[in-house]
Structure formats: structure tokens, C-alpha cells
Amino acid sequence: VTRLRAEKEDTLALHKLPYAHDGAPECFTVLEAVRAVKPTALIGVRRHKHSLRKGALAGPEGGELAGYREDSAGGVAGVAGKADKDGKHESPPRLFTREVLVEMGKNTDAPLIFALSRPEGIAECSAQDAYHATDGRCVFVPGCPVEPFVDAATKRLIAPRPSTSAYVFPGFAMGVSLAEANRVRSPMFLAAAEAVASLVTDEDLAGGAVYPRTARLREVAAHVAAKVAAKCFEMDGVATANAPGKNKQSHERLVALAKKSMYDPAYRSYM
Q1: Going edge to edge, which strands form the sheet with 139-142?
Q2: Which of 44, 81, 92, 105 could make a disulfide contact with 76, Cβ separation 3.0–4.6 Å?
């Protein structure tokens, strides 16, 4: 979004204004935007038919949507009348094309590529596409599970883990509860993100994963809760818990308190 367009459009959300760019030309495709702005991170979320009609893949003239089916949520599901050898509908073109990914690789040594749209058929690009176009230098996060593969450039076994709110929100809610917070503020989300990142191991990173293993989700939730609760206590007027000394608990103590408060899906045997 250019500054000129931002000033003219009454419907543009206020939180987008800080990201408007001065001096950048009006861009109608992702490739044009990447070349003009030279970002180091590219995040794709829920794709809709608009991305194939105008403003992303199609360019200002539009018309690329012809023949595409819509899914129940209004996204692009496939190409009507075009089927592969298994009889399945052909997937729509990727929003992050090879040209886009190559340009991202020119902007920084380790471009962040987040292709979060679900299902995989409408993801902005595949993990293999991103790694191949950037010579194995990208940090890739999918929205769907990815089969492990060997990167041709680095010969590493790559096994990215999909992004999911399960890493943050169970623990976030518990942290708010522990602190008896009366409001939610942006620093609390940053604290939650830092808690998740702190549990990513060198082994995870070596395999192309920027999230912990899902088998550790309960542990992740406890650490997120502790960090969020501690941040609530740091900020004025957010935490209302009045237990003596509760706002001076160590991180380890808050983690233990979070684990104690968790529901344990185990059942006592009466036989």
C-alpha cells in the first residue's frame, strides 16, 4: 500500500497505515510489490478468489479466475474441467511464484517465507518451492503438515512444522487467568511468542522447524502462561491477582503453577 493510496482510501484499516510506503509505485502483483519494497519477510494467509482475479496473480486487467472453483469458505479450490490423472481438480497457480521467491532470496540471506493458507492446494507455495528458489537459505513455515524432504542445495533433511494457534492460545489464556488480568495488551502477545521461541532447539532449527514438536505442547503452554502472567504483573493496571507475593514469582515457579492448574486427561482405574 502506498502512502498516497492510504491517504485516499477511507476503508483502509488504521493499523495498516504504518506499513504504507512513501515513494513506492502502485503495485498490482506480489512480484511487483517485492521488487518495489524489497521485504525480507513474506506472509501469506487465507487466499480468496480476489488473489486470482485482480491485485495479486492476475495484474490490473484481471480475468485469471475464469474456470476456477470456489470452496465453501470462498477460497479457490481448483480448476473446473481440468483434472489430473487421478481425476482430481488441478490446483490453482501459487501466489508466491518462483520469480517472487527468487526476488526474496535477493533481498536477504535468509528470507522468511510463511505460506499459511489451508488446505495445501491453495497454499501460497510449497516448502520445496521456497527452498529450491532460495538455494536452501529461506526460513519456511507452512500452514499444513509437510512431508520431510532433502534440500537439493544444502543436502539437509528438511521437516518444517506448520504454524498453529495451539502453540500460543491455550497458554495465553492460562497466563491471563493466573494474573487475573482485566485486559489484553500487545506486550503480552510478544511475551507469548518469546516463550514459544525459547523452546525451539538447535536440532529443530537444523531441520527447518521454527516451532517446537507438537508432543511438547503442554510444556509450551506452561511456559507461555508463565511469560504472559509475568508480563501482566510488569504492566500497570493489568493484573488484579492480589495473592501475597504472586507478582514476584520466578519463571520456574510460574511454570510449575501453570502445570498444576492444567487439566490432566487421565482417569483413575476402579477395576
Answers
A1: 41-44, 112-115, 139-142
A2: 92
Give me the residues of the chain with pLDDT under 50, please. Answer: 54-55, 58-59, 62, 79-83
Give CB contacts under 8 A, 24+ apart, made by 30-38.
30/56, 30/57, 30/95, 30/96, 30/97, 30/100, 31/97, 31/99, 31/100, 31/103, 34/100, 34/103, 34/104, 34/107, 35/103, 38/107
3 touches 20 (CB < 8 A): yes
C-alpha cell at 84: 489430473
Residue 35 C-alpha cell reads as 521488487
pLDDT digits (tens, 9 = 90+) for 159-210: 999 999 999 999 999 999 999 999 999 999 999 999 999 999 999 999 999 9
